[in-house]
Design a protein that fits this description.
Elements lengths: L4 E6 L2 E6 L3 H7 L9 H4 L3 E3 L1 E3 L1 E5 L2 E16 L5 E6 L6 E2 L4 E6 L1 H72 L4 H69 L1 E3 L4 E6 L6 E2 L12 E16 H4 L7 E5 L9 E4 L2 E2 L9 E9 L10 E7 L4 E7 L4 E2 L5 E6 L5 E5 L1 E5 L3 E6 L6 E3 L12 E3 L3
Parallel strand pairs: 3-26
Antiparallel strand pairs: 1-2, 4-25, 5-19, 6-13, 6-18, 7-9, 7-12, 8-11, 9-10, 11-13, 13-17, 14-15, 14-18, 16-17, 19-24, 20-21, 21-22, 23-24
Helix pairs in contact: 3-4
Family: Belongs to the membrane fusion protein (MFP) (TC 8.A.1) family.
Protein name: Toluene efflux pump periplasmic linker protein TtgG
Keywords: Coiled coil, Transport
């Protein structure tokens, strides 16, 4: 059996429907309820008010915080060659000085052999120069002995000449008195002249001996200079060898700090070069020291001057949402503003022996600023916010007339909000209320 249908006019449009569905559609076609009359809109609303109170609060600043390792080291090679052995990988815990990888440098090994052979030759030259010094020293001593001997001969010649002179004078006196013949005087004179000639010969020998001493001393000085030059050449070669040994030691790359290997950008067999040649390339390894971490907080210029080492810091991290916040203290402040961001970096050091805090973690830091300040407060429920995020309140005057006042807010502890401007202590505003109010609207203030 077919349902009976009904043609009705709904909001100006004809609709055919069954009798069973008619009640539902008719309900939707009913006209809207009448709009409230202006008298109802202007009806005085009863409200409760709260007063702006003045109190001392501990000012804080809430800023983003990022976890950084205590120390961060990029490992780059000092020597050039192929990576022969790789001893660590990502996540390995290393100690300072531990071998990380080794680089094969055969050309340096050959260069070391060449320098070592040159040192051996120079050491031989040094020994030869030392022998020359010894020889020159012996020659000096010999010439000095010859000089001493000549000087001794001079003393003997002086004595012989003196005796001959004395004998000549005695013989001359005897000849003059006629006691001796002239022949005897001639013999004594010849003897005296002979002694004089002998003395002159000895004097010449002394001069020759002195000259020989000067020559041998000069030869000794030259030999000593040759020895010093040989020693200097040997020392230079030895220092070159030490320098090469240092470069060879660089081929064994060691950990500069203790920490965890967080990056590895090298494979066994890779050709690597000196760090100066690849400063723009990625490091071979990156090591983070994370047994202690530093949390860096950029503080804006308005609060930077009021932060000092030791100020209390409360840290929260989304990764540990269910855990209590971390209490710490400001460890250090940079003392200057970054020109691009106009912020000052503040650091907090935290023990991290369990490795819970990871470098790169993001959180929030609430820092207690130095000194308490007097400020105006309102309950958070009494402050409204526009769609643009601007705060405002409904101020109730003595005549119970509403004024919409824009305010500037500050600290918010969840219960009360700081009013930085726009209100004075003692002014009353409408407490939490579902209704919106307009300027000049009359209200009735409830006393309890």
């Amino acid at each position: 059996m077919m349902d009976k249908q009904l043609m009705i006019l709904c909001r100006g449009n004809p609709i055919r429907l069954s009798l069973a569905a008619a009640p539902l559609l008719l309900a939707g076609c009913l006209p809207p309820p009448p709009v409230a009359k202006s008298a109802d809109r202007d009806r005085v609303v009863a409200v409760r008010t709260v007063a702006v109170t003045e109190a001392e609060i501990q000012p804080t600043t809430l800023q983003p915080a990022t976890v950084h390792p205590l120390y961060y080291s990029e490992v780059r090679p000092k020597a050039s060659g192929f990576v022969s052995q790789l001893h660590v990988d990502i996540g390995d815990v290393v100690q300072a000085g531990q071998v990380l990888l080794e680089i094969d440098v055969p050309e340096m090994s050959k260069q070391r052999e060449v320098i070592q052979a040159r040192i051996t030759r120079l050491q031989a030259d040094e020994k030869r120069a030392a022998a020359g010094v010894n020889l020159a020293d012996a020659q000096v001593r010999s010439s000095q002995a010859s000089l001493v001997e000549a000087e001794s001969e001079m003393r003997r010649a002086d004595a012989s000449l003196a005796a001959a002179e004395s004998e000549f004078q005695r013989t001359s006196d005897l000849v003059e008195r006629g006691s001796l013949q002239d022949r005897m005087l001639d013999e004594v004179r010849k003897k005296r002249d002979s002694e004089r000639a002998a003395k002159q010969s000895v004097a010449s020998a002394i001069d020759s001996a002195k000259a020989n001493v000067a020559v041998t001393e000069a030869q000794k000085a030259a030999a000593e200079a040759d020895l010093e030059a040989a020693r200097a050449e040997t020392m230079i070669a030895e220092r070159e060898l030490e320098e090469l040994d240092v470069m060879i030691d660089y081929a064994t790359v060691r950990a500069p700090i203790a920490g965890i290997v967080s990056q590895r950008n090298v494979e066994p067999g890779d050709l690597v070069g000196k760090a100066s040649d690849q400063a723009s390339t990625r490091p071979l390894l990156v090591i983070n020291q994370v047994d202690k971490v530093r949390v860096r907080i950029p503080v804006p210029e308005t609060d930077a001057a009021r932060i000092n080492p030791g100020d209390e810091v409360t840290l929260t991290f989304p990764s540990f949402a269910g855990e209590p916040p971390i209490k710490a203290a400001v460890t250090r402040r940079s003392g200057s503003l970054d020109r691009s961001t106009r912020t000052m970096t503040v650091e907090v050091e935290l023990e991290n022996t369990d490795g819970k805090l990871l470098p790169g973690m993001f959180g929030q830091a609430s820092i207690n600023l130095s000194g308490k300040v007097a400020t105006n407060l309102l309950p958070a429920r009494a402050i409204r916010f526009s769609e643009e995020g601007k705060a405002y309140v409904y101020v109730v005057g003595q005549d119970e007339t509403v004024t919409v006042a824009s305010i500037e807010t500050g600290l918010d502890d969840g219960q009360s909000i700081q009013v930085r401007s726009g209100l004075l202590p003692g002014q009353r505003v409408i407490d939490a209320h579902l209704k919106r109010f307009t300027d000049g609207q009359k209200v009735t203030v409830l006393t309890n």
